[in-house]
């Protein structure tokens, strides 16, 4: 990934009134930072004072929802509900928790995504562990899961549904499908061993580790030897689809912290789509589906890439909640093979 730029945290002198407050903490990654964090810490280590300090700091650093983020982080560290912060505003907070909160708020001020701080992302109402090794699941990706479930309902109930998930990341698609489908057999592939480690954590968390085969490698290459050629019902993928030219325009939370390899796909953003489409027909069974999440304005070009192979028909495009064509679904010809 390209170098990260963060705001530095400048040490301050401790006042006589504030001896019990933690000293200003410096993130070791801030060596080249130039912007000073205004870090006047509260005199009282109670819930309301900590939130007031955090909101002020996050607001000063341009965070869009400073109060929400401040409350989510504190409720996470205190292992309580957000409403409890309002019910008990004068609740004392232990010193070690105060220090953790200060460090977490400073990370958020430096545009570290909230999900990486709490290690929590919700996907189809399931709780997924996430960290900097994986892309943060987005709501629009839930449409991929919905598309598979909808089409799998037309298969005989006793059918073992074979699904290949390319670019598994946190495992949000693979794990959710394993939870939602009793007879799914899923092959989850990623080129990153670190991403696969996170996906395994989530599979174990949700009790579906035995339904998913995790494989490290490039697209279909790790599938060799499993005997599923021409037997796959669904190939699903939320591949990297940002062009290298667009990368610099992304939000700091994304470009400075999420994995570059999970975001960028060549100069035009289509490299991974082309790579998958080139070999998909060898793995799909006739009548099987390939389902992609795509970037804005990519749906029609990806549909053409599929149709130009001569193996696919009935390409459908699905809009997300912002009315952007986000999902491309194409069915393999039943007569090919």
Mean pLDDT: 88
**Overall domain count:** 2
Class inferred from helices and paired strands: alpha/beta
> How far apart, in Å, are the first and last alpha carbons?
41 Å
The CATH superfamily title of the largest domain? Vaccinia Virus protein VP39
Shape category: elongated
* Helical content band: 25-40%
- Count of individual beta strands: 11
How many separate helices? Answer: 11
Largest sheet: 7 strands, mixed
Strand order of the largest sheet: 7-6-5-8-9-11-10
Can you tag this structure with a few keywords?
337 residues; alpha/beta; Rossmann fold; 2 domains; two-stranded parallel ribbon; disordered N terminus
Structure, described:
This protein is of the alpha/beta class. It folds into 2 domains: 8-112, no CATH class; 133-332, Rossmann fold. Helix content is 33%, strand content 18%. It has 11 helices and 11 strands. The protein has helices spanning 47-60, 66-78, 82-87, 95-109, 114-118, 142-152, 172-180, 193-205, 252-255, 271-280, 299-308, and strands at residues 8-9, 36-37, 121-123, 126-128, 161-166, 184-190, 212-216, 232-237, 284-293, 312-319, 325-332. Strands 7-6-5-8-9-11-10 form a 7-stranded mixed sheet, with helices on both faces. Strand 5, helix 7 and strand 6 (184-190) form a beta-alpha-beta unit. Helix 1 (47-60) packs across helix 2 (66-78) and helix 2 (66-78) runs antiparallel to helix 4. The longest helix is centred in the first third of the chain and has 15 residues, at 95-109. The chain is elongated and about 75 Å long. Residues 1-38 have low confidence and may be disordered.
């Amino acid at each position: 990934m390209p170098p990260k730029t963060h705001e530095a945290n400048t040490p301050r002198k401790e006042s006589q009134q504030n001896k019990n407050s933690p000293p200003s903490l410096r993130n070791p990654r801030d060596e080249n930072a130039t912007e000073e964090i205004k870090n006047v810490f509260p005199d009282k280590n109670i819930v309301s004072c900590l939130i007031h300090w955090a909101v002020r700091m996050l607001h000063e650093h341009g965070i869009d929802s400073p109060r929400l983020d401040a409350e989510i982080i504190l409720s996470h560290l205190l292992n309580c509900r957000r409403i409890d912060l309002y019910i008990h505003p004068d609740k004392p907070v232990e010193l070690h928790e105060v220090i953790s909160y200060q460090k977490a708020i400073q990370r958020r001020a430096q545009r570290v995504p909230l999900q990486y701080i709490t290690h929590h992302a919700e996907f189809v109402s399931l709780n997924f562990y996430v960290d900097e090794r994986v892309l943060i699941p987005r709501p629009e990706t839930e449409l991929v899961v919905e598309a598979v479930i909808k089409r799998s309902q037309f298969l005989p109930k006793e059918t073992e549904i074979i699904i290949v998930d390319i670019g598994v990341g946190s495992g949000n698609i693979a794990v959710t499908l394993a939870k939602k489908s009793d007879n799914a057999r899923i092959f989850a592939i990623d080129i990153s061993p670190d991403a696969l480690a996170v996906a395994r954590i989530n599979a174990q968390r949700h009790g579906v580790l035995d339904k998913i085969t995790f494989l490290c490698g490039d697209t279909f290459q790790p599938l060799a030897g499993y005997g599923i050629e021409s037997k796959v019902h669904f190939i699903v993928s939320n591949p990297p689809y940002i062009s290298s030219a667009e990368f610099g325009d992304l939000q700091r939370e994304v470009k400075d912290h999420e994995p570059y390899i999970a975001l960028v796909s060549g100069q035009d953003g289509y490299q991974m789509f082309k790579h998958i489409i080139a070999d998909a027909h060898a793995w799909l069974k006739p009548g099987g589906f390939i389902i992609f999440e795509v970037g804005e304005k990519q749906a029609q070009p990806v549909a053409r890439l599929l149709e130009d192979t001569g193996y696919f028909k009935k390409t459908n495009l699905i809009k997300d909640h912002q009315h952007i064509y986000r999902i491309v679904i194409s069915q393999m010809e039943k007569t090919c093979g």
